[in-house]
Amino acid sequence: MKCSEFKTQALLLMDHRLNDAVRQELEKHREECRTCSEYVEKLARVWQAELPELDASPAFRQRVMARLQSESSRPSRMAELWEDRLLPALRPTALVMFMLVSIFLGRWLATPTAALNNNGTEPQDMLSIEYFETLTQESLAAVYLSLGEETDE
User: How does strand 114-116 pair with strand 123-125?
Assistant: First the structure.
């Protein structure tokens, strides 16, 4: 192991955040390398040192609190981006999409339903002239009467 690799993981070693295999490899290197052993000792002294507690001045606290309040009252950058750029661009797109869907649905709903021929194989348009030409006078009357019965119910 190189010393540079050891130094990048030394804090993790001291904080017990490494798995056993990596920890054993680092410990082995530390035992063999005097420079890295001294490095860990220095880190341990800093790690265990008690630092004095610093107290912020009241003016500093007021400035921090005022800044936090001003930041929280202002809309976020994402909200500004949405309102200023994305929403105006989406409105025409939504309108075009609505129109396309309306046209598609209108054409789809206006298409007559298909009926089967007498043999049940070929679909044909129920409202076409050819369909009514194949019917006899008696069957036309039957169709007319059946349509009248459906509307009465």
Answer: antiparallel
The token pair at 63 is 């400035």
Spatial distance between the Cα atoms of 43 and 37, rounded to a whole number of angstroms = 10
**Please, which residues have CB within 8 angstroms of residue 64's CB and are 6 or more apart in sequence?**
56
Is the separation of the CB atoms in 131 and 125 below 8 Å? yes
Task: Using alpha carbons, select from 124, 102, 129 the residue that is nearest to residue 114.
Answer: 124
Contact between 22 and 9 (Cβ < 8 Å)? yes
| Single-letter amino acid code for the residue at 60 | F
Q: Is the pTM here over 0.70, yes or no?
A: no
pLDDT band at 28 (very low <50, low <70, confident <90, very high): very high
- Do the beta carbons of residue 40 and residue 10 sit within 8 Å? yes
The Cα 78–Cα 87 span in angstroms is 12
